[in-house]
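Annotators were shown the component list below and the corresponding predicted structure, then asked to write short factual statements about the assembly.
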Amino acid sequence: MSVDISAMMLAIFLPLFGAIAAFLLPRAAALIGLVALALTTGAVIWLAREVWQSGAVILPLGGWGAPLGIDLRADGLSVAMLALTSAVGLLVSVSALDALKGAGQSRQRQYFWPLWLLLLTGINGVYLSTDIFNLYVMIEVIALAAVGLTVLSGTRAAVQAGLEYMYASILGALLFLMGVGFVYLQLGRLDFAGLMDAEPTGALIAAVALMFVGLALKTALFPLHFWLPAAHANATAPASALLSGLVVKAALYIVLRLAQYMPFPSEALLTLVGMMGAGAVIWGGIQALRAERLKLLVAWSTVAQIGLIFVAFARAGELGLTESWKAAALLILAHGVAKAAMFLAAGRIKDEIGHDVIRDLDRSPIRPTLAQFTFALAAISLIGLPPSLGFIGKWALMEGAMASGYWHWVVVTMVGTLMSVAYFSRVFAGFLRFDRVRAPVGEHQGWALADAAPLTLAFAAIGLGLMAAPILSFLEIGYPFGVAP
Amino acid sequence: MTPDLIYGLTGIAVFGIGLVGALCVQERLRRVLALKLCSVGAGFVLVVGAWREPPEMPDPVPHALVITGIVVMVSATAVALALIRRLQTLEATDER
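Structure shown to annotators:
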């Protein structure tokens, strides 16, 4: 009996086997990790070609199709998310080689690779699943690996944050499971195709709402964001980059998919989602303005940016949902690339200067200029200055909101943008002031090969904005929302 | 009140008690227990939903979901307990 090898299977199973191998052979973990990642990236490129040439691809696992078996499906949106994951993942891995090379970090080195490959398995699994129970299992895989990465440094603050994250994650997963169960009890189906033409009864909407609350907890949507800042700020730099750039995106993607396949709740609920997003934009901004440490500021900016993605989702009301998801997807991609670059750069700055207290950044005679430049480039994309991908995302958000007359979302976006300028300026001031330094300033100190990966990511965050049109047309392959009302 | 309605409501109540505990309790171990209670409630509801009048066989799919949920919950509990122990050790060394 022959087994057809498909790119989708490889994208899930390569990292899984890699994780097992890296766990069993700790000395070769880094090598195994990089090879597994490179091969996975190759599989994703193969899959992207397939989707580009012949549209959405469906693979019934083991020859058993839905509803009895499990289907894997790849369309433009899932391939875009997979591409984001492998590109960011590969570069973060390269920089992890350097970030974890210290003598006292052998434990971290040993566990980083299995956990990260397991995380990759879960994330790729989410992007290829077509069945809500499969999604539940995958977000659990992600949660366990992500908590492991959070506590990798082993400090008290990190373990405390990891425990909070674990509680939030378990609760989110249980709410999601409860929702999945209710959906099954009502419809008798778990695959997306079976959910598509369901009647939007009150009970079904309650089930979807349960699932949504669970996902909001996992993606840290205001006011359920309480676990995120501590968890992302206390993890080691590569782990923070993965958590902030990739992990929260998986739950966001499921929200997009649910809106695509399930009867979406009414206009009022969509407005509520937008309001929660607006709350995140403003509260995240305020907290980022108050944060004392660089990594905490970056983590709060993640809260604000996630809020913005939900605002993009709700920007044009129920009728605009068929277009709004594209603005949200663009912002997801932009944030993934830029935030990974920013966390890596923040980690580099902390390594070189020895601390990350924002107030004292300008007292340091050491100026890791390349890392600071990377931070600034990433900030340009997060603020949304042209021609970055963040700009295109915000533009799409506001254009759609204006076209359908929802001016309040434009105001929220503007306020969020101004606040992000304000809080990133605090950091830039620390980079650019020299009058508080007592010792001679070493302008070009702290350049290292480790800056290459974050710098590449930051340039990508800016440069991808120039390729927005091809990205948008790629996202539409397989018409993810063509069937939605 | 049919039996399955009573059981279903019990499951939801158990889930609710767990939810309140998970959100309001401060003590670490008790929060883990509250989350366990949540998962028991969720499983209860699903198993009750799978029940059919005796001549008919119960629906096996929710049972499969519950078993997966139990497996996931066991590993999640293990991780949470390991973290709590680690945290206690770290706190003890900090205080010394």
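Statements collected:
1. Chain B is about 85% helix and 0% strand.
2. Residues 6 and 25 of chain B are 28 Å apart (CA to CA).
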